[in-house]
Specification:
Strand content: under 5%
Largest sheet: none
Organism: Panagrolaimus sp. PS1159
CATH class of the domain at 157-183 and 195-264: Alpha Beta
Radius of gyration: 36 Å
Distance between the termini: 94 Å
Helix content: 40-55%
Protein name: Cathepsin propeptide inhibitor domain-containing protein
């Protein structure tokens, strides 16, 4: 039986609100009963899920607002530091040329401003080195692909912290020079430059098409063999670092390696 209720005595049309009673359920098959119960559970679960999503979204919005405020505050600080940097006027525009030359791109404006500040600090160091009276050899310093990186980032890329400790511990091809051998070399000239002897190849870069590669071990190995061959045979040869990266399975290609293993 289905019960009905009239919503107002003066109304000529009754509003019917059906609801199942015991007789209603008895008339249903077990499949229909299961479907109705599942539907009730699904509606309840949907309501709970919607409430959870609304609350979660509100929390995320508040967290995002706080993070944006923090970034705006930090970016404002970096912008002020950039504008007040003593080398901003001198090298501020060169940063755009630097990005084009070394194919640099940054995910956010905040990151770009941070890298530009590092670049200006590096350029200040470069100017100071070039003007240093102690630079007796006349070395010339300039920007390269690492000029927008911190010291920690460069060390991580080019020279892992455990490099020398592992080299001393596991080296078989390379060994430390004995103290008595160093004492015999007391009559040495005040300066000596192998480049003047024509046995040092040109400077090479570890980056390939803008991709950082921790392959210093391969470049150091190739350069050492190139110079040793030139000293012994009077001929400068350009050896392939890529062959070491591809074929020296004892090392880890762009993830680092040891020159001792590469020599072997």
């Amino acid at each position: 039986m289905t019960k009905v209720y009239s919503m107002g005595k003066s109304s000529s049309t009754a509003a019917f609100i059906p609801f199942p009673d015991e007789h209603f359920w008895n008339q249903k098959s077990w499949v229909e009963k299961f479907a109705l119960r599942w539907l009730k559970f699904a509606i309840f679960a949907l309501i709970v899920t919607m409430i959870f999503l609304v609350i979660t979204q509100q929390m995320l919005n508040r967290e995002l607002a706080r993070e944006n405020e923090r970034l705006r505050s930090h970016s404002s600080g970096i912008d002020n530091e950039l504008l007040s940097h003593p080398y901003f006027e001198k090298y501020g525009n060169e940063f755009e040329e630097f990005k084009k030359k070394f194919d640099k791109s940054y995910e956010t404006k905040h990151e770009e401003h941070r890298r530009k500040l590092i670049f200006l600090n590096r350029m200040q160091q470069i100017d100071e080195l070039n003007q240093d009276e102690a630079n007796l050899l006349g070395n010339e310093y300039a920007a390269n692909q690492f000029t927008d990186m911190t010291d920690e980032e460069i060390k991580k890329l080019l020279m892992p912290l455990d490099y020398y400790s592992n080299l001393r511990k596991h080296a078989t091809f390379l060994r430390p020079i004995d103290n008595d051998m160093t004492e015999t070399a007391v009559n040495h000239p005040p300066r000596f430059d192998w480049r003047e002897k024509g046995v040092v190849t040109a400077v090479k870069t570890q980056d390939y098409q803008g991709v950082h590669c921790g392959s210093c071990w391969a470049f150091a190995t190739a350069a050492t063999v190139e110079s040793a061959y030139a000293v012994a045979h009077g001929q400068l040869r350009n050896l392939s670092e890529q062959q070491l990266l591809d074929c020296n399975l004892e090392n880890n290609a762009c993830n680092g390696g040891d020159v001792d293993k590469a020599f072997r």
